[in-house]
Write a structure and sequence with these properties.
Helix 4 packs across helix 6 and helix 9 crosses helix 10. It is globular and about 95 Å long. The strands form seven sheets. The chain has a six-stranded mixed beta sheet with strand order 2-3-4-1-7-8, with helices on both faces. A six-stranded antiparallel beta sheet has the order 12-13-14-11-10-15. By secondary structure, it is an alpha+beta fold. It folds into five domains: 158 residues, Rossmann fold, CATH 3.40.50; 119 residues, Orthogonal Bundle (Topoisomerase I, domain 2), CATH 1.10.460.10; 117 residues, Topoisomerase I, domain 3; 116 residues, Topoisomerase I, domain 4, CATH 1.10.290.10; 80 residues. This is DNA topoisomerase 1. Its EC number is 5.6.2.1. One of its GO terms (cellular component) is chromosome.
Length: 727
């Protein structure tokens, strides 16, 4: 009997082969694709990889209109040229499947991994999802270490079909929502004479809504003045117990009373209390993204990509988890001992072991599929600087869960000055405990003078600063991921990608996220005329329904039917208000694409696209004015509001992925380009010069050849053995 194990990625396929093969696995090439084979009992095991999704959703038929409701799964290479590389992986799996009677889905144990593996097994076996249990099993593992992979193979599970149905419903509804409303939005804009590929999705819309509402709160915020009355004893500050005082007369009264009584200040109360600070819980994905952003400034998408890479190389556990639990079945003492072999953690591991502290601090969040993120104990090798930082963050956070509570002494003083009470609070770490293990956590310490109740205090100054209330803060990427989680929008694996899409569509910008003028117009137009697209309640209801599918409490067909009904209702509303939406977006789109004034006739210079999709700049007074300028492709062009003093064209900022932004004027013939041109010419001239031949390396000294053994005797014997008369 032959069995085919399907891994989600080539790196995991190799680890499975090494773990199960016990030194007997062989690598086999099928074109450019490698798979693995090994004996198993009386049969044989093949291990081959997918590269993520080998199948994707597509519409039935090729109409460009909307609404679309008829869809199907199809091989990814047939739907998108950029997925052409997946063809060889699918064909390799098909070739191996012809020899196999059993299949094992070893893709990541989550809904996406289930969808990836189940679609492949459906294709290979020719069976529908509900029937694949007769020919397939499921591997469940949270790390790619040999032990976990062997344990998983030794306790195979039936296919998790309910998770497949939940994942399939999510894919289908997301695709339907995205394609229909993206086409509707693009159509509305193009009907106003403008063109830009727009998109809005089932989660994109509500995510944009959260940001737009925050933007409006900030815009409508009116700062209010307030006053603090502060007393100083040398370097120590005490604040009036009234706190923020919004009536200036009240603040002045407190200030005057304190000033008049400053020579008779006395401690009216002195308290001190010890507080225990428990360790932070281990990381789930969201808290890891938040902490990596806070400590290192890592982008949430980059954090997920690095964590996935560390997982695939067996250094950490599966990162796409919602859990803050570390089950005892993980073998926690062994992991700590293995971490102790790394010099960076040897002292911490030894201390934990000597105290026998193997019960971790945990958080409330749970995940049925995976535990919290933890280091496996395998010492990382060949990782990048950023990966090393992220691994250290995870390892220290894990170890700190076993540390003793930190002890903090919180103390406060109340001082009576002229009948006014002033308060000062301080804190000092008296026993660091787990803080010694997790260097990324800091408790802010603050000193106060060592005074007792009834003791006189020398007041050196009294101040009454005027302050203003601050507007709500804008979200960072990491903060927005946390907010989306609170609102149950998206999944732990998709939230970072959703935010990235909003950036790509020019709906939002900046590290402290601001909704662009165009993004705000899109939101306003939809909120007024088709609020279901940006309303989070619709999305949350569908999320709950999909959760019920995964638990076997609601059939997939019912959720899809309900989702399509909501979709068609929303499209009907959109179409009835299409003209209004078109008009509202038209002006904003124009202004968003205006870079400045045309130096020839004073018209607006706007970003346009050629019929081939190339972006360039043209005058809004075309055809009267035919002035145009080229633009870099695959770059975001941002107006600066400034113009070049020489050519008088607008200066724009060029932003390209992975490269530092720069500013430049639009005219390629401007004198400001002369230095740049000279540099290019010098480079070209140097390249055209005949290259001086490099000196030949000295030949290495020849090794003395060993004398070859003489063969004369052998030849003589052969001649003697040869029958006479034969040549």
């Amino acid at each position: 009997m032959k069995t085919l194990i399907i891994a989600e990625k080539p790196s995991v396929a190799l680890r499975i082969a090494i773990a199960l093969g016990n030194g007997q696995h062989k690598s086999v090439r099928n074109g450019r694709i490698t798979y693995y084979t090994m004996p198993h009992g009386d049969g044989e095991i093949y291990v081959a990889a997918a590269v993520g999704h080998l199948f994707t959703i597509r519409q039935k038929g090729k109409e460009r209109a909307y609404p679309i409701t008829e869809i199907e799964w199809a091989p990814s290479y047939l739907t998108n040229k950029r997925s052409e590389y997946t063809k060889e992986y699918l064909f390799t799996l098909k070739k191996l499947a012809q020899e196999c009677s059993t299949f094992i889905n070893a893709c990541d144990y989550d809904i996406e991994g289930t969808v990836i593996g189940t679609n492949i097994i459906k294709e290979l076996s020719g069976l529908q999802a509900e029937a694949i249990g007769s020919v397939s099993k499921r591997m469940k593992f949270s790390t790619t270490t040999p032990k976990d992979l062997l344990d998983s193979f030794g306790s195979l599970l039936p296919p998790d079909i309910n998770n497949f149905y939940a994942g399939e419903a999510r894919h289908m509804l997301d695709w339907l929502w995205g394609i229909n409303f993206s086409r509707a939005l693009t159509s509305a804009l193009s009907s106003s004479g403008q063109y830009k590929q727009l998109s809005i999705g089932r989660v994109q819309g509500p995510a944009l809504g959260l940001l737009a509402k925050r933007e409006k709160e900030i815009a409508s915020f009116k700062p209010e003045p307030y006053w603090n009355v502060l007393a100083y004893s040398g370097e120590f500050e005490f604040i009036n117990s009234r706190g923020n005082i919004f009536a200036k007369q009240e603040a002045e009264s407190a200030f005057s009373a304190a000033n008049s009584g400053r020579d008779n200040a006395v401690v009216s109360e002195a308290t001190s209390a010890e507080q225990l600070r428990r360790p932070y819980p281990p990381f789930d994905l969201t808290s890891l993204q938040l902490e990596a952003s806070r400590v290192f400034g890592f982008d949430p998408s980059a954090t997920l990509a690095m964590a996935q890479s560390l997982y695939e190389r067996s250094f950490i556990s599966y990162p796409r988890t919602s859990s803050q639990k570390l089950p005892r079945t993980l073998g926690l003492p062994r992991i700590i001992a293995d971490l102790g072999k790394n010099p960076a953690y040897s002292t911490i591991a030894a201390e934990i072991a000597s105290k026998g502290r193997f019960t971790p601090a945990e958080g409330p969040k749970e995940d049925e599929a995976h535990p919290a993120i933890f280091p496996t104990g395998v010492t990382p090798k060949g990782i990048t600087g950023s990966e090393e930082k992220l691994y250290d963050l995870i390892a220290r956070r894990f170890l700190s869960c076993f540390g003793e509570y930190a002890k903090v002494n919180n103390f406060s003083l109340e001082i009576s000055i002229g009948g006014e009470t002033f308060e000062g609070k301080g804190s000092k770490v008296t026993y660091p405990g787990w803080l010694d293990y997790y260097k990324y956590a800091k408790i802010k310490e603050r000193d106060l003078p060592n005074l007792e109740k009834g003791q006189r205090v020398e007041i050196t100054d009294i101040k009454m600063p005027e302050l203003q209330t601050a507007p709500p803060k804008r979200f960072t990427k990491a903060g927005l991921i946390s907010e989306l989680e609170k609102h149950n929008l998206g999944t732990k694996a998709t939230r970072a990608a959703i935010i990235d899409t909003l950036f790509k569509r020019n709906y939002i910008e900046g590290s402290s996220i601001r909704v662009t003028e165009f993004g705000m117009t899109v939101y306003d137009a939809l909120e007024k005329n088709c609020s279901m697209i940006v309303d989070e309640d619709t999305t949350i209801t569908l999320e709950k329904d999909m959760d019920l599918i995964s638990k076997g409490k609601m059939p997939e067909s019912e959720v899809l039917k309900k989702g399509k009904e909501v979709l068609l209702t929303a499209i009907e509303t959109f179409n009835s208000n299409k003209e209004k939406i078109s008009e509202e977006m038209k002006e904003s789109f124009k202004s968003a694409n205006v870079l400045g004034k045309c130096p020839k006739d004073g018209g607006d210079l706007v970003i346009k696209r050629s019929f081939r999709g190339k972006q360039f700049v043209a005058c809004s007074n075309y055809p009267k004015c035919t002035n145009t300028y080229p633009l870099p492709q695959n770059a975001k062009i941002v107006p600066t509001g400034n113009a070049c003093e020489f050519c008088h064209t607008p200066i724009v900022k060029i932003i390209r992925r992975g490269k530092p932004p720069f500013e430049i004027d639009l005219d390629p013939n401007c004198v400001t380009k002369d230095a740049f041109k000279k540099k290019l010419e010098a480079k070209a001239e140097k390249a055209s010069e005949p290259q001086k031949p490099k000196p030949k390396p000295k030949p290495a000294a020849k090794k003395r050849e060993k004398p070859k053994p003489k063969k004369a005797k052998k030849q003589k014997k052969r001649a003697e053995a040869q029958p006479k008369g034969e040549a």
